[in-house]
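User: I'm curious whether this sequence folds into something compact or stays loose and floppy. Could you predict its structure so I can see for myself?
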Amino acid sequence: LAMGVPRAILLCLCGSVLCLTVSQALQCYSFQHIYFGPFDLSRMKFPNVSCPHGCAESVLSLDTGYRAAVTTVQKGCWTGPPTGQMQSNRNALPPDYSVLRGCNTDLCNANLMSHDALPNLSPAPNPQTLSGIECYACVGIHPEDCSPEKSRRVQCHQDQSVCFQGNGQMTVGNFSVPVYIRTCHRPSCTIMGTTSPWTHIDLQGSCCNGHLCNKDSVTQPFTTASATTAPQAPHVVALLLMVPLLVGPSP
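Assistant: Here's the prediction. I'll summarize afterward.
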């Protein structure tokens, strides 16, 4: 990620068993919500749900890099395969983060309870220099949330000398949220959200050159993220970080 923030991927590895196995249904907390700022669930009372394959909890966040984010929090049953791989690109923007935790004791999915589960996705540049380009910055779950009239004008950091606009989906299991975003970007315009067998941040969009040029519709069809580059920018080969995800019983 830009400004030295790693594109972080985390799955809590609990114990040495490499798959979730339970002899009977577990009681797990059930919850899902979308946040547009810091969250704290420490005082909330969650309903319970019966789960045949274990419990799970996840936090996904997509950020402009300029103090605006959409974050989804979900707790419920473990679904999908017991093991797999998560893919990300450390050179991609906008910054995003995914954390997924599985466990197999009653009501064990109560660890990801606040915004402290996320790193700072909007750090100040170091050194504190600007590129000289100004772009619209916004992120929301409705197109009108991200109209130019509702967007902030931001001075882009360091090597972010082009503007970006796009859309996509944030998905955990069968819980999916549309996202619309405008922000600054690097000339390479490398776009890739974190993906795994359980979670998916799917983004597509385009970059443009010039002050406040990212004012077009965020609902327009864009080319696929992996093929998107800024005009006249050299092609950048994406490095996929393959991290094995194993889930076992919690201690």
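Summary: Confidence is low (pLDDT under 50) at residues 1-22, 225-251. DSSP finds no helices and 14 strands in the chain.
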